[in-house]
Amino acid sequence: MKRVITYGTFDMLHYGHINLLRRAKQMGDYLIVVLSSDEFNWESKQKKTYFSYEKRKQLLEAIRYVDLVIPENSWDQKVSDVKEYHIDTMVMGDDWAGKFDFIEDETKAEVVYLPRTPEISTSQIKKDLNAKKLATSVDTSTIDVSGK
Ligand code: C2G
Predict the structure, then answer these.
(1) Which segments does the entry list as coiled coil (predicted)?
(2) Domain-by-domain residue ranges, the chain?
């Protein structure tokens, strides 16, 4: 059984995440997602997620490609994760290209960087939603609904 691992925050789950998870699963038989905890996100990534860890975990566990979700509490747990779970392949989006090559030096696993889905990101979704909110937050009291 080929075992694959990937890491991320996966906040406001979108099709870019799904594209990554689908391709990661295609590289093996069992996919472990190491999901950034709320504390790790805030302390180490300065990310305040929209959904809590539990909600993000619930969403990921509903995805057919995902076999196991475990917490990511530190940048430094990857080597021990790969060894503990007997991982064959670690997969990340190519925004991380080169950053985890040390995994190949310190474990038997290969590291694969896959092209990101270019036009979508959680931060872009938030920006678009804010822009729409501003655009549609007109003062409705000025609208004449009398039909005259
Ligand atoms: N991703 C992607 N395409 C997008 C957005 C994200 O392929 N449009 C990929 C990222 O490259 C990453 C995964 O989806 O491999 C999860 O993305 P994030 O939730 O943004 O994770 P990140 O903040 O990069 O955390 O220790 C590693 C970190 O936990 C990775």
Answers:
(1) none
(2) 3-138
